[in-house]
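Two proteins were folded this term; both appear here.
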Amino acid sequence: MSSFFRWSSGRVALLVLGMTAATITPIVISAPALSQNTVPSATPSPETPSPATPSPTSTVNLSDVSSDYWAHPFIQALADNNVIAGFPDGTFRPNQAVTRAEFAALIQKAFGSQNRVRQLSAGGFSDVPTGYWAASAIQSAYETGFLAGYPGNVFLPNQQIPRVQGIVALASGLGLTTSSTGASSDLGTYYNDASSIPNYAVSGVTAATQSNIVVNYPDVKQLNPQQPLTRAEAAALLYQALAKQGRIQPIASNLPASQYIVGGTQTGNDIVSLAASSSSLTTLTSLLKTAGLADILQQPGPYTVFAPTDQAFAALPAATLQQLQQPENREALIKILRYHVVPGAVTASQLTNGELKTYEDRPVKIQIDRANNQVEVNNARVIQPDIKASNGVIHAINQVLIPPDINISKLNQPPTANTPDVTVGRATRGGRSYIGVAGNIGLSGGDTALSDGNFAVISKLGLTNYLSVRPSVIFGDDTLFLVPVTLDFSPRRAGSVGEKTYSISPYIGAGVAIEANVDTDIGLLLTGGVDVPLGSKFTLTGGVNAAFMDQTDVGLLLGVGYNF
């Protein structure tokens, strides 16, 4: 027990400062950066069969295409129909660029039975040897009219194919022509960068757009014609082409993926889809999904939504958005969002002075200034009226409407001293409780298992909204039990990977370290780190621990926990 007091004040100050810097800064900064590493490219060779041609034993469980990935419905459906497949390691590598040879292999797999419209000369392309892995696919794609060569009788099989070439290839192979009725033939109505489309491709892109074949992610109005086509984008284009032929069911309009399909009626035009496609209503869209109301607002309705813009949400008091997305404040979030929705489709011209009852069973006050053509809802002003949806109408407003029974300044407040709310195993503002495994990396010292590389069992048990106890044990020659109590901070956004947004939840605390040997020793423990929720089931965690025993042992604990 005497070792509990064996350190100098200077040493403690330096250690705490180092722990804080090591925990809050490097881990916070590096976690989102690591999560966004690009997938290394791989080009099929004669020894490596094309990934477009699955083996008889291949599966459709693609480890890097999660259910919430933007192109998941396209990729999964094509994989289920044996049109595409993954790599031998179980990945699909959706962000990897597609070469012309690989695109030809995909074309052959999807449209190999299509009638030939021309014949490749006996010698073929000069840069495609007879034994080349994609020679047959290239010949098929050429003879069915999808792909052509370059001057000089070359195909350039290893060249990355631009998006615009992939789109034109599908329009050519399917024999699509532009329509003079229905959908617009002016590409400027679909794409902000229409001027970047090469002259040779205008007709083909127009025909493909009118046929709902073009899929743009993340901005449906940005074609990026000269960017290399990725495997995910190729899958989306192929899916739409097969749907055009009636060989596969169109993507359901209530799926998020449908909002990236350009043109026609296939793109979702319900209230949620329109909000999701707007660059100024992204926060509202995200909150509707968090609250579980997105599916409701995609039903027939009709509904009228007074939709706060991103700037309106940004004007709320600091940290309010983060607090509203906490599990303990979900009911408040639902109330606030329902307060913005009115039954029926009410256009701006139909609004009158007075009150409108919302789905929150509390009315909003409507004030009309016909002279200045302005509409106010409570204290908010309608800045863009009458955004027509298939199931109602949206009016964009410049302030968030707060129901009278909601006090946003008291969201997510710690319990008062008179009414403690201690529940072991509860979620805290930093996230869910969990139990898991970790690896320890020794940084300094040499007295306990904390100073060496060892296996560990970790846990987090929420006590209150902001306090947790995090018992863990590090196994080794001098097994060490760590029992810190931590202050858990609210999550903050760290970065995004595809459609997935990750947040980090810092924590810092102190407790006791118990060395399990013949002479049991107890010392002070200081800890600090971050939790990174990976979804509803798992949490990634990393932290620095310092145990003051006979020596000061410092270790870095990295692990993953299963939420409960």
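Next, the second protein.
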Amino acid sequence: MAYEVTATRKRPQAFEKLVGQEFVVSTIENAIESGRIAHAYLFSGPRGVGKTSSARLLAKALNCKNGPTAHPCGECENCKEITAGSAVDVIEIDGASNTSVNDIRVIKDEVLFPPQASRYKIYIIDEVHMLSNSAFNALLKTIEEPPEYIIFIFATTELQKVPATIRSRCQQFHFQLIPLHAIKGCLKEAAEEMGIEADDDALFWIAKEATGSMRDAYTLFDQVASFSGNRITLEGIRDKLGIVSTDKISNIITLAISGRRLDAIKGLSDILSDGLSVEQCIKSFTDFFRALLFIKEGILDEELLNMRSEDIPQDLVSVLSVAQIEAAMRTLLQLYREIRYSISPRFELELFISRLSSLRDLSTPEELVRKLDEIRENVTNGKVTVVKEQVQNTVVLKTEEKKTEKVAPVETVTEKKEEKPQIESAPVSSIYTDDEDDDEEDTLDVKKEIKTLTLDDIYSLAGSLFDAGDFAVASALNDVTNLSNNNGRCELRTKTDKAAQQLKNNLRVIKGNLLKMTGFDSEIVPISTESHRTASNPILERIARDFRGKVVFEEEKQYSFQTNDNY
């Protein structure tokens, strides 16, 4: 007996054998049993999901000797002829080969003659979207009011190309992609019928590569079975078809993230040396990061992952955040679009692997803002005290617990100003507090003749308080844009209400330190000049405020940063 491919041998011969199309099957069966048979049907959907097979089953159900019935016998002469494709009254037409209006005129002439040996004369037109506009127009009247013994069944993979005038005259059925587990079960049944042992992971890979098409799955199964002998294994598939394994992909990503760039690039070179293209390699990396993201979100369904969850190392799931995985996927998708214009696509892929070593350090703007808020809250609540010490031209920042030290270069003064008494680098409480005795003024080295203030005095005090650790008051003084000395008092004009309120809450500390520095002992009145414009972007406003800058509204929904040059 001649060899028959699995897709043809396993073609369903009854509606109950049609896999993954429960809605179509139930609707057609109910319509046949109730006698509501339409004169035109339109089957649409992806390739290899059973459109043509359903058309033949419908023709068999209508022309069966026991019919019309939803369960044709398959044994009568009409059923056998339809199964073999030799039925005189069931005409199958390839729409891609018969596209002209002349071909449709032949059909219009033939419908005038009743069926010869069957109940209905059925026309099955496959790939109907390939017909020309003139052919569609010539078919309109015929499919709208055909003779009672004529039934049209159209099948197409591109429903949008079928004119609305045709669709409105047909009952439409949309076929869905077949679930992965259903394809896997059919492949297992086919392997058992052929006496072939097949590993579960090998059948899973074949079903995944079919992407919802049963015909594609059977075709790939036949190819794999031809070189696998009596046993189909995933390792054999990888060796023969040059497929990269998930283990190799995860190993390269693990090496790159751990900082072992050289080993990761060597692993990539081994994959490319096995014959895998750069494009396919990028797709494999993208599929891996996609599965990693889904597992990170708690999705373990194999049909969504397109790979088994146990193939994903838990170390990678725990070490990478969702934002970092999404950033890697965006980079891969952009890389796939750019390699067509690249001098060397391989260099682009190697550069991506090299950059993976810094993926763990990636932070989103939201995370940076949250960390800045935590630092500011810790400083405000006194959980962290910043102390500046002069140690061999370095500044040492210490916390209360003295667990960590951060060393930074000492700032150098580029412009010499008029010498004034300086405030020692110490915690804010040691600069000036409400509990200090007034007798200490006798020991201060200040210039009593200075009775007015300038902006330089305010900014100098701000810098001293910042060095001493009082960031809140220093930031408020830095927001002073103008001042005026009138009638023995000084009015400080700030850019924001918050800065003015901060100055009011710390007037005694400010006046005490200004007295030490300049001898000014008059009244100080903070005044806000804020226009109360609502911030269009709170995140940008917060970042600008933490860096002692501001957001300038140049145009609608456009922002730019300006920082104070004194820092």
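The CA atoms of residues 217 and 526 lie 77 Å apart. The longest strand covers residues 150-156. These notes refer to the second protein only.
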